[in-house]
C-alpha cells in the first residue's frame, strides 16, 4: 500500500471554494477594492453587490442608498443610487465608517474591479445582482473576456436564466433564503436546474440546541448535494454562524462550497480540518 504525503493528500482532496459574503463586511469595508484584494489574497472569491448609477455606471453597493456604508452628505444619504451620477458617488468615502484605517476608499466601478481580475486568470468574482441592466452587464463582462471567472448570483431563477442566455460562459447561482429552501429548491429541481450552475442555501441556527446546529437538516443537505451532483451542479451553503464542530460536520457531508462572513476565521478553521484529514 502506498502512503500519501500530506502534500499528496491535500492535492487529492476536492478543492474547497469559499465566497466572501457581502464583501467580508465583518472584516473589511464592504464593496471596496480593499475587500476584493483581501478575499483574493486569502484564497477566496470576493462578492460585489452591483447597482447602476443614473449615468449607467455599474458600481459596488449593497443598499439602495449610500447612508449605511459611506460618508455621503445629509442631502445625499437617502438618495437612491439610481438617481446619483458616478461623479457624485465618487465624492463619498466608502471606508471611513468601517475604520479610520480605510479612510479614502472609494465606491468602485465594476469595470475597475474587472480590469484587475483580467490580470489574474486564477481568480474569480461573485456578482450579487441588486439593480443593473443585465444586457449592459453581459456586454461589460464580454468586453473583458471574463465569463469563466464570473459567478452571477440572485434569488430569482428568471434572472439567472436571463444572464445565462446573455453570457453563456458566466456561471449562475440561485441563492435561497431561510424559510424558502424546500419550495424553491423543489421548483429549481423540477426545471432540471435550468441555466443554473450552483444553488446556495442559507443556514440559520435552529432555535433549540442539539447535535446538529442548523434549521436545515443534515439529511436534507445530503439529498440536495446528491441531486445537484447528479447533474454536475454544485451546492453552496451560507452558515451565518459556525464553529469548528459545525463547519467540520458540513465538510464531512461533502460540501465543498461555502459563503462566509468571517473569511479569516473560516480559513483558520479549514486549516485545522485539513490537518485532521492527514
UniProtKB/TrEMBL annotation:
Query: What are its GO biological-process terms?
Result: lipid metabolic process
- One Pfam match, given by its short name, reads GDPD
Please give the coiled-coil regions recorded for this protein: none
Q: Which Gene3D superfamilies match?
A: Phosphatidylinositol (PI) phosphodiesterase
Q: InterPro entries given for it? A: GP_PDE_dom, PLC-like_Pdiesterase_TIM-brl
Q: List, in alphabetical order, the Gene Ontology terms for molecular function in this entry.
A: phosphoric diester hydrolase activity
Q: Which domain of life is it from?
A: Bacteria
Where does the GP-PDE domain start and stop, copy by copy? 16-270
Supply the PANTHER family for this chain. Answer: GLYCEROPHOSPHODIESTER PHOSPHODIESTERASE, GLYCEROPHOSPHORYL DIESTER PHOSPHODIESTERASE
Protein's name according to its UniProt entry: Glycerophosphodiester phosphodiesterase family protein
